[in-house]
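Sat 14:20. Reprocessing the chain from the morning session after the first attempt stalled halfway. Input below, unchanged.
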Amino acid sequence: MLETSVSSRPLVVGIGGTIGGVASTERALMMALDSAGQAGFATRLFGGEALAQLPLYNPKAADRSPAEREFVDAVRQASALIIASPGYHGSISGLVKNALDLLEETARDARPYLADMPVGLIATAYGWQATGSTIAALRSIVHALRGWPTPFAAAINTQITKFDEEGGASEPAVVEQLALVGQQVARFAPLVAHG
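Finished this time. Tokens:
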């Protein structure tokens, strides 16, 4: 997990990635988190490797694994989220959905689910069609969790855009879009009262 030094600064949590190494989705998420970090926020990344440690969500489980508790606690502390998913068969990946399902653990919190939290969205896919449907699915899930999807969401066609290991992308417009996702969560997070 990528983590900036956590202090009294508000926290933006990034959720997303794929199993099998750092790929386009996770690289895009890191770029958006970096933008939030530049705006003064602490950031924490739950990428593909971390999400793969979460067991399949069982609503009847009496206890949660250390990885599940760590993930839910980080979301509880967050002022904002950024969720990034690859477009798999026209929707979000099971890995990302499983993590979001785990947020049922917050149902009885003072701030349940993602209530009143700004949430930035990113979808990556090998083509345009799946990026649009994946963003729509993420918006629907965030609304169901009582969160506020930020006005702009980044839809990235990985046929066109290539990411590098140094934290960049081949398309300047995509770099700007990912920065905007981070800037918007940073801009809206201070408006949220945390409890």
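The first strand starts at residue 11 and ends at 16.
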